[in-house]
């Protein structure tokens, strides 16, 4: 994992001092509200329905145990004892006091954390696959490239006041995309060209929100050393020509669409020709230096514990289910990737208490070299667990509520905070997630249904990624009442697509039944091997419409 | 008369005036006794009158394209870039293009909605003169120009990104 050197430490300290100064000027009335707004947003600070909200950055989702413990202490000392993992791998606090934020930032800086650019019209946290570095099918570990982007984008003087927020995601797996790169402003897929050289396929102009779009490819192969100069060219074109007259048309996706992907790509290439050989061009040493922070932990030389696990599975049915659903294979023999789910019915998806943060820190120390990763599905991952310790771990996490064996099933819901916390919401979303979880409480049935992404947002800002859920739920407002619109067929993976709206919306108490009917259609129509999405793509939306609105 | 801040935070006064773009059918109203900044495209249209005059500079608005002055920038003693709203970041790109692509070496001035917290970004993007919005406390400029002792990236102030400095 990346470790700060004296430069990073100094910059982090200067940032805290800067924000302290800005907050003091704001509280003294020297900064008007609209002048302070972008400054505080660039420090992750929203003013919300109930209190400020602070979004703390977790670069590409990686955390160390001491950082988790510090987060736990911060939620206790400055907040109400819980925090929230988000779809962009960050952490949110819902109740800090404005005056305390500089102190919180100072506490974070002590453990190499910050809230830089977690909001505002600037380049946000770069996200990636939570299994980076430990899976067998990745082209290379994407995290060093994410760290390189993090440094380049942090306090970038030219791009702090873009037309709109800007999000970059990187994926390096050949077979899956756990980072949803095609619905980001820039999505980078790591690839090798025919000569075996490493580079990126560049998608630009994806995104959710009001005008959801899948990002088209604007360059099939970008050599790795050209990463930053090319990003700089894309951002410069966007900064200069992105729309600023209308906030809803200001995202880069609108510019890409207006110019066509080819037209946009030409503009970027023209810009890039001027700067591609500038000192911003990466060097082999810079990449290797960054890679040296992401080396393998001190793995033991082990064999796969196949027989042991088979016996243990046989003895514990719950362990068997958990192993099948929440544990993934690891590139090293004798190790496994463990997903701790934060989706226990009755707990809002992604919520963690201060005690749970400390429990996760202890688990990380004991079982996974002191590191964890946050997933964009609002779960956490222990990436390096010995297979012969899995049973012990399962026993430990079951009472903590992290062993709900529903990963990737219908009840592993992505859900934004909605009307319970968010000032922008049209409707509550957490109670909808809970009602659906209650209705589908039979694990065997869930397993029979297979992988289904159910994503819920409380308004069209799409924090819950509803457009790319196989089933998406969107809170809408009808004359002051809360209603829910359903879309089907979205995907955030390699086959990314935006869901199609089913029809008129429903009242909240109808939702579990409506989801049930949708599932029934799938069960009726599916062939042996089909997932929900396969069936939907084959039969189309009509059979679902007929059943739901019958 | 504008109070102008320099990159080191010192303050001086000068008497450059910004001549607004004339309305349809009107002509440029250049003052007789003061140096003037005129819209860049109009300077170009009449550059045979203006070249060599130390009292005529140009200004760009945030949506203007500095490309129009390619090859001519150093005929100008001052180029100003307007920030119509502090949150409009196009001027930063204009600054870097003028300095890094077109090789502009004379004064580059930030005008308009210029606030304290943007000064260091402006400095890094090549601006070496700042006319702060008058209601802001000019004595705080020096501190705000120096919140950060270095930057991660290359920009106009340094062409050595931190990753290159780390390697050396
Ligand atoms: C109460 C706190 C929150 C507020 C005020 C808030 C606000 C917003 C707003 C205004 C947008 C607008 C986007 C646009 O128009 O493009 C947005 C997008 C988004 N938010 Fe939130 N949000 C909050 C919580 C969350 C949480 C908890 C998550 C994660 C579960 C999240 C994840 C996202 C994501 C992924 C998008 C992106 C949509 C895109 O790609 O275009 N937000 N949020
Ligand atoms: S989707 Fe809407 S309701 Fe949900 S967190 Fe985002 S802004 Fe708030």
TrEMBL record, chain A:
<dbReference type="GO" id="GO:0004783">
    <property type="term" value="F:sulfite reductase (NADPH) activity"/>
</dbReference>
<protein>
    <submittedName>
        <fullName>Sulfite reductase, beta subunit (Hemoprotein)</fullName>
        <ecNumber>1.8.1.2</ecNumber>
    </submittedName>
</protein>
<dbReference type="GO" id="GO:0020037">
    <property type="term" value="F:heme binding"/>
</dbReference>
<feature type="domain" description="Nitrite/sulphite reductase 4Fe-4S">
    <location>
        <begin position="409"/>
        <end position="548"/>
    </location>
</feature>
<dbReference type="Pfam" id="PF01077">
    <property type="entry name" value="NIR_SIR"/>
</dbReference>
<dbReference type="InterPro" id="IPR051329">
    <property type="entry name" value="NIR_SIR_4Fe-4S"/>
</dbReference>
<keyword id="KW-0560">Oxidoreductase</keyword>
<keyword id="KW-0479">Metal-binding</keyword>
<keyword id="KW-0408">Iron</keyword>
<keyword id="KW-0411">Iron-sulfur</keyword>
<dbReference type="InterPro" id="IPR006067">
    <property type="entry name" value="NO2/SO3_Rdtase_4Fe4S_dom"/>
</dbReference>
<feature type="domain" description="Nitrite/Sulfite reductase ferredoxin-like">
    <location>
        <begin position="347"/>
        <end position="397"/>
    </location>
</feature>
<keyword id="KW-0004">4Fe-4S</keyword>
<keyword id="KW-0349">Heme</keyword>
<dbReference type="Pfam" id="PF03460">
    <property type="entry name" value="NIR_SIR_ferr"/>
</dbReference>
<feature type="domain" description="Nitrite/sulphite reductase 4Fe-4S">
    <location>
        <begin position="119"/>
        <end position="275"/>
    </location>
</feature>
<feature type="domain" description="Nitrite/Sulfite reductase ferredoxin-like">
    <location>
        <begin position="53"/>
        <end position="111"/>
    </location>
</feature>
<dbReference type="GO" id="GO:0051539">
    <property type="term" value="F:4 iron, 4 sulfur cluster binding"/>
</dbReference>
<dbReference type="InterPro" id="IPR005117">
    <property type="entry name" value="NiRdtase/SiRdtase_haem-b_fer"/>
</dbReference>
<dbReference type="InterPro" id="IPR045854">
    <property type="entry name" value="NO2/SO3_Rdtase_4Fe4S_sf"/>
</dbReference>
<dbReference type="InterPro" id="IPR036136">
    <property type="entry name" value="Nit/Sulf_reduc_fer-like_dom_sf"/>
</dbReference>
<dbReference type="GO" id="GO:0046872">
    <property type="term" value="F:metal ion binding"/>
</dbReference>
Automatic annotation (TrEMBL), chain B:
<protein>
    <submittedName>
        <fullName>Putative conserved protein, DUF934 family</fullName>
    </submittedName>
</protein>
<dbReference type="Pfam" id="PF06073">
    <property type="entry name" value="DUF934"/>
</dbReference>
<dbReference type="InterPro" id="IPR008318">
    <property type="entry name" value="UCP030820"/>
</dbReference>
